[in-house]
Every structure is written in structure tokens, then in C-alpha cells.
Amino acid sequence: MSQHADQIAWLETLRRTDVGRVGGKNASLGEMVQALARNGIQVPPGFATTAAAYWQFVEANDLRSRITGHLAAWDEHRASLAETGQAIRSLILQGTWPEATAEAIRSAYRELCRRGGGDDIDVAVRSSATAEDLPDASFAGQQE
């Protein structure tokens, strides 16, 4: 899995210091997994995609300037928050994963299946922003 370390991180390796790399929820999950393991409590395995993987997706699909343009329109009151969110959501949904990122996710999922003892295991998917749940701010519920 080390060849994908810039794009994938296993929860059991994450610490609070990884918020900028994997977001607040993922860093907290890593801390929880480690604390529970020290007490003999098993937690199902999991992995996070990194902020680097997100930015590779954004760059591969030439989204940065388009997202910035939509945010500027909202900031200048030329578009509503709902319109802005829908426009950005549409851009992201139309994007395609860079092959290296897609392979990192597929590879991590295969390893997750191996660790979980199945060939096609169910997973839970959560969003985790790198600027959420900071000591002086919380953005819970504001990310989709």
C-alpha cells in the first residue's frame, strides 16, 4: 500500500496531527481506533483518501478555476448558495478520477476486503474536510 501513501491512509495509522492530510473525522477515527485497540476492542478496518487525492482529482479535471468562479459569483451575490452548491456539485460529478487515484482506491478496497474476510464487503463512506472541527471552529453538517 506504500506506493499509494500520498492518496490513501489506513485509519489505524492516523493521528490528530493528520487533520490537514485526511480531515478531522478521519484523524479522529484514527485516534479512536488506536485507543480502542489498546483496550482490546476490535474495530473494523478502514482507510481514508487524502487531501492530495482530492487535489489531484480537481487538477486532472481542471476544476479549480471553475469552482473559484462559482464561489466568486456567490460572494458577489450573483448566485444563491443553492445555485453555487449545485453548480460545483455538478462539476465534481462530471469529473473522472485520475488513473493513479482510481487504482489507489481500488487497491485499498481490495486490501480492505482481505482484512475484512470477504470479496465484496460493504463500506460506509464519510466526508471529512481538512478545516472542520478545528479548536476554534466547527463546520459540522456544512459539507456534503
Secondary-structure blueprint:
Layout: E1 8-10, H1 19-22, H2 24-38, E2 47-49, H3 51-60, H4 64-75, H5 81-94, H6 99-116
Antiparallel strand pairs: 1-2
Question: Your description of this structure?
Answer:
This protein is mainly α. The protein is 51% helix and 4% strand. It has 6 helices and 2 strands, in the order βααβαααα. It has a two-stranded antiparallel ribbon with strand order 1-2. It is elongated.
**Approximately how much beta-strand content do the residues carry?**
under 5%
Strand order of the largest sheet: 1-2
Rg over CA atoms, rounded to whole Å, is 17 Å
| Low-pLDDT segments | none
Structural class designation = mainly alpha
Distance between the termini: 28 Å
Sheet bearing the most strands, described?
2 strands, antiparallel
